[in-house]
Predict the structure.
Amino acid sequence: MPQLRFHGVTPARLAPVSRTLVDQLSEATATPRDEFTLECISTQYVFDGQTVDAFPFVEVLWFERGQQVRDVCGEAIHQAMREAGYPETETFFLALCPSGYYIAGKPLAQDGESDSR
Protein backbone atom coordinates (compact mmCIF):
# COMPACT_ATOMS: atom_id res chain seq x y z
CA MET A 1 0.00 0.00 0.00
CA PRO A 2 -0.25 2.54 -1.72
CA GLN A 3 -1.41 0.98 -4.96
CA LEU A 4 -1.19 2.85 -8.26
CA ARG A 5 -3.33 1.57 -11.11
CA PHE A 6 -2.34 2.86 -14.53
CA HIS A 7 -4.99 2.82 -17.26
CA GLY A 8 -4.07 3.42 -20.89
CA VAL A 9 -0.38 3.14 -19.98
CA THR A 10 1.88 0.38 -21.27
CA PRO A 11 4.29 -1.45 -18.97
CA ALA A 12 7.11 -0.83 -21.46
CA ARG A 13 6.69 2.94 -21.11
CA LEU A 14 6.08 2.90 -17.34
CA ALA A 15 9.00 0.65 -16.39
CA PRO A 16 11.81 3.14 -17.18
CA VAL A 17 10.29 5.82 -14.89
CA SER A 18 9.01 3.50 -12.17
CA ARG A 19 12.12 3.50 -9.96
CA THR A 20 12.31 7.28 -9.73
CA LEU A 21 8.56 7.55 -9.27
CA VAL A 22 8.51 5.09 -6.37
CA ASP A 23 11.53 6.83 -4.82
CA GLN A 24 9.68 10.16 -4.91
CA LEU A 25 6.42 8.73 -3.61
CA SER A 26 8.21 6.83 -0.87
CA GLU A 27 9.92 9.99 0.33
CA ALA A 28 6.76 12.11 0.13
CA THR A 29 4.63 9.59 2.05
CA ALA A 30 7.30 8.25 4.45
CA THR A 31 6.39 4.76 3.21
CA PRO A 32 8.93 2.01 2.45
CA ARG A 33 9.49 1.45 -1.28
CA ASP A 34 8.46 -2.21 -1.11
CA GLU A 35 4.96 -1.25 0.05
CA PHE A 36 4.11 0.35 -3.32
CA THR A 37 2.32 -1.54 -6.07
CA LEU A 38 2.29 -0.27 -9.65
CA GLU A 39 -0.20 -2.03 -11.91
CA CYS A 40 -0.82 -1.46 -15.61
CA ILE A 41 -4.41 -2.34 -16.39
CA SER A 42 -5.12 -3.29 -19.97
CA THR A 43 -7.75 -0.81 -21.07
CA GLN A 44 -9.76 -0.67 -24.28
CA TYR A 45 -12.09 2.23 -24.93
CA VAL A 46 -15.10 2.15 -27.21
CA PHE A 47 -16.89 5.21 -28.58
CA ASP A 48 -19.48 5.49 -31.34
CA GLY A 49 -19.10 1.85 -32.36
CA GLN A 50 -15.31 2.07 -32.69
CA THR A 51 -12.37 1.21 -30.48
CA VAL A 52 -10.44 4.38 -29.72
CA ASP A 53 -7.08 5.23 -28.18
CA ALA A 54 -7.02 4.98 -24.42
CA PHE A 55 -6.71 8.17 -22.41
CA PRO A 56 -4.10 7.61 -19.72
CA PHE A 57 -5.13 8.04 -16.11
CA VAL A 58 -3.84 6.89 -12.74
CA GLU A 59 -5.85 5.75 -9.74
CA VAL A 60 -4.06 5.96 -6.40
CA LEU A 61 -5.51 3.81 -3.63
CA TRP A 62 -4.03 4.76 -0.27
CA PHE A 63 -4.64 5.89 3.27
CA GLU A 64 -5.24 9.64 3.28
CA ARG A 65 -2.13 11.71 3.95
CA GLY A 66 -3.45 15.25 3.51
CA GLN A 67 -3.52 17.83 0.74
CA GLN A 68 0.19 18.74 0.84
CA VAL A 69 1.36 15.12 0.42
CA ARG A 70 -1.34 14.51 -2.19
CA ASP A 71 -0.11 17.54 -4.17
CA VAL A 72 3.52 16.34 -4.08
CA CYS A 73 2.50 12.84 -5.16
CA GLY A 74 0.21 14.16 -7.89
CA GLU A 75 3.05 16.23 -9.32
CA ALA A 76 5.49 13.28 -9.15
CA ILE A 77 3.00 11.07 -11.01
CA HIS A 78 2.38 13.79 -13.62
CA GLN A 79 6.12 14.24 -14.20
CA ALA A 80 6.68 10.48 -14.49
CA MET A 81 3.88 10.19 -17.04
CA ARG A 82 5.34 13.07 -19.09
CA GLU A 83 8.73 11.34 -19.07
CA ALA A 84 7.02 8.10 -20.14
CA GLY A 85 5.54 9.89 -23.17
CA TYR A 86 2.08 10.71 -21.83
CA PRO A 87 1.90 14.53 -21.79
CA GLU A 88 -1.75 14.60 -20.74
CA THR A 89 -2.88 12.34 -17.92
CA GLU A 90 -5.27 12.54 -15.04
CA THR A 91 -4.71 11.23 -11.54
CA PHE A 92 -7.21 10.67 -8.80
CA PHE A 93 -6.74 9.57 -5.22
CA LEU A 94 -9.09 7.13 -3.51
CA ALA A 95 -8.73 7.20 0.26
CA LEU A 96 -9.13 3.84 1.94
CA CYS A 97 -10.38 3.45 5.48
CA PRO A 98 -7.98 1.51 7.75
CA SER A 99 -10.92 -0.28 9.42
CA GLY A 100 -11.93 -1.60 6.00
CA TYR A 101 -8.43 -2.82 5.06
CA TYR A 102 -7.57 -6.30 6.26
CA ILE A 103 -4.23 -8.09 6.49
CA ALA A 104 -4.36 -11.79 7.39
CA GLY A 105 -8.03 -11.41 8.26
CA LYS A 106 -7.49 -8.54 10.71
CA PRO A 107 -8.42 -4.89 10.13
CA LEU A 108 -5.66 -2.33 10.41
CA ALA A 109 -7.90 -0.33 12.76
CA GLN A 110 -11.31 -0.58 14.35
CA ASP A 111 -14.07 1.85 13.34
CA GLY A 112 -13.41 5.18 15.01
CA GLU A 113 -9.71 4.52 15.60
CA SER A 114 -7.12 6.68 13.95
CA ASP A 115 -4.40 5.04 11.90
CA SER A 116 -1.61 7.22 10.53
CA ARG A 117 -0.74 4.94 7.60
Notes: Strands lie at 3-7, 37-41, 45-47, 50-52, 57-63, 90-96, 102-103, 106-107.
